[in-house]
Amino acid sequence: MESPGLEEFVEEVDEILQDLEQGILQLEAQPRKKSLVDRIFRNMHTIKGGAGMVMQTDLADYAHKFENLLDRVRSGEIICTPEMATLLLDALDGLNSFMDRIRGTGDLNQELIDRTLKQIGVFESGETPAASVSDQQKSEQKPQQDQASVEVSVLEQEKGAPKSEEQSLWDDEEEDEKGYLLNLKFSIEMLRNGSDPLLLINELDEIGDLTLFPHLNSVPELKSLEPEELHLWWSGKLVTGKSKEELENIFVFYQGDDADVNYEPVEAPPEDPGLASTGLVSGQQDPPSSAESQTEKQNKTEDRTEASEEKAIETTEEKPQAEQPKASEEENKTGEMKKTYEVSETPEKSPSKSPQNEPVVQTVQSIRVAVEKLDKLQNLVGETVINQSRLHQLSGQIMTVDESLGEMLSQFVEDNEKSVRELQDQILQVRMIPVGSIFTPMRRTVRDFANRNNKKINLEIEGGETELDKTVTEQLHGPLVHLVRNSMDHGIEDPETRKKKGKDSTGTILLKASQQEGYVIVEIEDDGGGIDPKAVFDSALSKELISPSDELTDREIYQLLFLPGFTTATEVSDVSGRGVGMDSVKRDIEALLGTIEISSTLGKGTNVRLKLPLTLAIIEGMMIDVGSQVFTVPLLSVNEAIRPLPKQVKKLKRKGELVEIRGEYIPLLRLHERLSLKPRFEKPTEGLVLVVQHANRKQCLLVDEIVDQRPVVIKSLEDNFIQIPGIAGATILGDGRVSFILDVPSLLN
Length: 749
Fold this sequence. Notes:
This protein is α+β, with helices and mostly antiparallel strands. It is 40% helix and 21% strand. It is built from 22 helices and 27 strands. The strands form seven sheets. It has a six-stranded mixed β-sheet. A five-stranded mixed β-sheet has the order 11-13-14-16-15. Strands 25-17-18-27-26 form a five-stranded mixed β-sheet.
């Protein structure tokens, strides 16, 4: 991709494809929600138009075919069924194939392209079995049939049918959705001040169904036009689930003395922009269908509703000649509208919510930044943290020579540390992305698996807004896919089995994320059959992974599932049962400095709990001294540090050394023996015992002393050194020495 325009097109389409997938899945569940159809249509239209602008004509033609199919759905001619949803998802794969070719990361899947185009032809020809809308409505009241055997529902509407029948094809929007009349008249100096009205418009479009009408009346002639002056303004309507208070947080950045940017709730159907009632839109009246004066207003509203729906897609779209209304002379002059109405030049202004003396608040700007630049910035911040450590050490050395100078330097170091901390937090926030970015694509994974295996599975997502470092999020995707597949395959039973157990025929998988202290907790929970601890124990025993004399708790038994090659599956499916997954999942999670735990109740379901750090770049570390070497332990793994009394140290046969802490006996690991170092203290009562924990396991580490505690920058050793058991990475101390970071999970194994 050498063209900047092509790069921008690829970035835009990547975002659109994600939204398309979710829109199609939602439409399959709510086939009568018109806003979803409009949303999918707009996305497909955008791809078609963008592809044409960057000369990707075959992609544009492909998108245009599906745009036409969706247009038939919008018009009510066809109702989207699971069969059509499957076709649209296949088309999505076809679009991704086009994008892979553009990126140079793959070849075009011509077989998929041809197959989907052929299926479109089947839909358009009406060769598929069709059912009337009334039949479709009746079928929705019956128990849901297998999704693989669905029919295409075609609207059988007579030519002279009343308007109400056409509107009945679409369900009303959800009760919590509200309509807001918009007036977006920004300051004329907005562009000159570095702001952009499209930021607000794009944000509004993301949170709901947005219909806008441009006003060109105040735009001067070309010879008088200043490029940095904003004369264009908009009015329209937004249908969204956001409250008025939530919208206030968005609009506050765009309101000011010189701007007339406001919104007002309106009681109107979602498809009706309701602009006529406020004076935002006025114009010529269509001939009334009845002489009764009470019906004239209703007819005008319906006409404007049709116009708004046409403008909501794009005013530049070309319709077939037969569908185009005749344009008036005034329309030919302005070229603004295709319908016979105009935008009022002086709409009624709503009271401003900001005090008159309040200064103009500048809008928040956003730019695209390459990930490589963020990584480099992260490394620079890491180097700054290292330099801060060096300053700490230098101030201490100067204090011994010149106390006055040392105090001045120490004060500077403290002040500078606040700035470094803030800089560290800010770069962390920049790199944070919602975990919903990997949660949401799981909906299609679940749908496709359920269809192939004759299961009914509902995926629920909670806490998708929880944020993680981009690197952590990306590396989490693989383990998450495997765990969800295990829940679908081994957890959720088939509908008949669930009914026999007294359960709902549709199983549920819950993806949940939440933040706790410096960690993010991710849970994968299902209401399936659960895990039988006895079956796991017997399987491990038959594979000689444990001995018959071993006494294990249920939690310890569940940990056996992470052993290489371990599986309880009697059959190998296309997604699981080979025994080569859970050990890999555990390794990947531990590579992220996280933990994984399993809890289950037989017959009721299973819960897999992941505990992950917010970032991997900079962590809080505790420096410990073992002999002449300084090691770093991640602070989040440290419970406490003690110097035990002689009576607290015990030796048991087959158990080794134990340290009794508040009635709990914890195994003792002499770190110097594990690392082949000569310590200063060999007795636990003379040195320090560091209590560390990973998952539900605890360990006491015998060390010489604690040196310091501060943020450390993790440096990977993979590029230059072989993997060393017990070592997760390295960091640089203030004096320039290298401190190895201990891998707590491997030390506990």
